[in-house]
Write a structure and sequence with these properties.
Helix 1 runs antiparallel to helix 2 (about 35-60). Strands 1, 2, 3, 4, 5, 6 and 7 form a seven-stranded antiparallel sheet that branches. This protein is about 50% helix and about 25% strand. The protein has about 140 residues and is an alpha+beta fold. The two termini are about 25 Å apart. The protein contains four helices and seven strands; from the N terminus they run βααββββββαα.
Length: about 140
């Protein structure tokens, strides 16, 4: 199998800190505005649950067993469970901006989502990823 481009899926510290700081900010505002201990406990439990699920989602979109690859015709990734290749279809609901993109794929009725940023990929790879993704989305419409 020929690989035309390889895009590593990496952790993004800025996104991680943004998620944590948003939850800490809501906690501090709730602490300052609420004068009832029961309401404060409810906010604490809600924020803890939200942070837990947010960090799980962060792990899902920034970790993968292999890099995302473009063969020149299709998106693919090596499947560690079957030692084969997993071909994926890029979904139109993917989100692409000049700084970040959240690419959504479908493979065998299962959906995958990965986060890429200009900072983690580098200028050239990020531009290539955006170009290929936008081309695939336009071709799918």
């Amino acid at each position: 199998m020929n690989i035309a481009a390889r895009f590593p899926i990496k952790e993004n510290r800025i996104l991680f800190f943004a998620v944590v700081l948003a939850h800490v900010g809501v906690f501090i505002v709730g602490f300052l505005l609420i004068n009832s201990i029961w309401t404060f406990m409810l906010i604490l439990v809600t924020i803890s649950g939200s942070l837990y699920f947010s960090l799980r989602q962060y792990q899902a979109i920034t970790n993968s067993p292999d890099d995302l690859c473009w063969s020149g015709e299709a998106w693919l990734m090596h499947d560690p469970s079957s030692e084969g290749i997993r071909y994926m279809d890029l979904l139109n609901t993917s989100w692409i901006t000049p700084q970040i993109c959240l690419l959504k794929f479908k493979c065998n009725e299962q959906e995958f989502t990965w986060f890429f940023s200009r900072k983690t990929l580098g200028e050239r790879l990020y531009r290539e990823l955006c170009y290929l993704s936008n081309s695939c989305i336009k071709n799918n419409q």
